[in-house]
Amino acid sequence: MFLRFLNFLRGYVKLEISGFSVERFISAAALAGIKFWDMKRESGKFYAMLGRRDFLRAMEQSEKTGTSLTVVAAFGLPILFARLRRRWFLLVGALAFIAGLVFLTSFIWRIDIEGNQRLSQAQILEFLEEQGISIGSFRHGLSYRDIENKLLLGFADIAWASVSLRGTRLLVRLSETIDNAGSTMQDYELQDIVAAKDGVIIYMATSSGQPLFRPGDVVAAGEIVVAGRLTLGSAEEGNLSHRYVRAESEVWARVYYQMEIEVPLTYYEMVFTGQSRRNYSFSIGSKLFELPFAFGANDDFIYYETTQSRWQASFGENYPLPIGHTRLDTYELSRRLRTRSPELAAYIALELANRRIAEELAPDASILDKQISFAENKQSLTAQIFLITIERIDVGRELELVDETQENSER
Length: 411
Hints:
The protein is an alpha+beta fold. Among the domains are: 2-81, Alpha-Beta Plaits; 110-176, membrane protein fhac (Ubiquitin-like (UB roll)); 260-265 and 340-392; 267-337, no CATH class. 25% of the residues lie in helices and 45% in strands. β2 (36-42) and β3 form a beta hairpin. α2 (22-31) packs across α3 (55-65). 15% of the residues are buried. The model is unreliable at 180-185 (pLDDT under 50).
């Protein structure tokens, strides 16, 4: 490998050796210290590789031995430079291309965000732009640790952040905090416990606060079930006062649901007509240039679907460049009136009902009774669903403090 590299730096040629004294020529060249390699015989002729510096010496030996040397090809760095000297425009173009490539790879041309669930990419990109980091920013001299700390301070939902630069691609990896949106308790310092849904209370376990309902009572959504405001003393004795606590309670109730889902028996189906149109737009940095014409059908479609694909120039995954194009394909659709059977409509209604039940019921809810009935007319089939469930309905709500001085004066 090293010898090949050395020969490339020095330059070498491929020779065709012909004549009646080829063996004598090779022996004389070997005695003179001339080294050949990759020698082979094809169709009665000899071929060999020879260093550029030994070529003139080999010509002297060929004249003495009566052989003929023909240069088939030349290789190596000196040969390449000699060719480029005659084509200086090509050399200048190559150098300009290399310089432009180095310049373009000095900026960030793509920002990828991984691990975000609740936070949108637009939020994070907007925050990074406020910190001076966006598409087209200079990539050298960035403090990744500083960016990570700013992300942690700027978003309460981010528990861990990692920022790394891979070529011209900035990779932001996040780990969000545990989502408490599905929890029945909120993290308020002082709170009441209110009912999340209408229902009949069947069980209560209160650890702090003053219960305002008991098992068997009917409660409406939003009503305070356990108050965080405790009443101490009595107004008659003149020692009435209040104390505020964080109410804590587990409340289970029997909840009733009534749903109605209507499925039409006639409907419109969208069918592809075979007509399509394709538009191209090209981007250089943040500038977008759209071609003034389209390929395919020229008529405007009334009903259509679109698909979009984007290509961006890059040297591998980690070196995207600010050049690309977007292809927008538009497919024409037509509406056709269809009719479905009552049996199929009932099946669709059941699927929709089960999906709606899964969305509205709490994860820990258990279904006690489920009744579904169908009513059909000429236009549609209606499914009526009646559910009885047992589920937890307590939810924390921030407690509002009351000015007791004003309250006593009103009395």
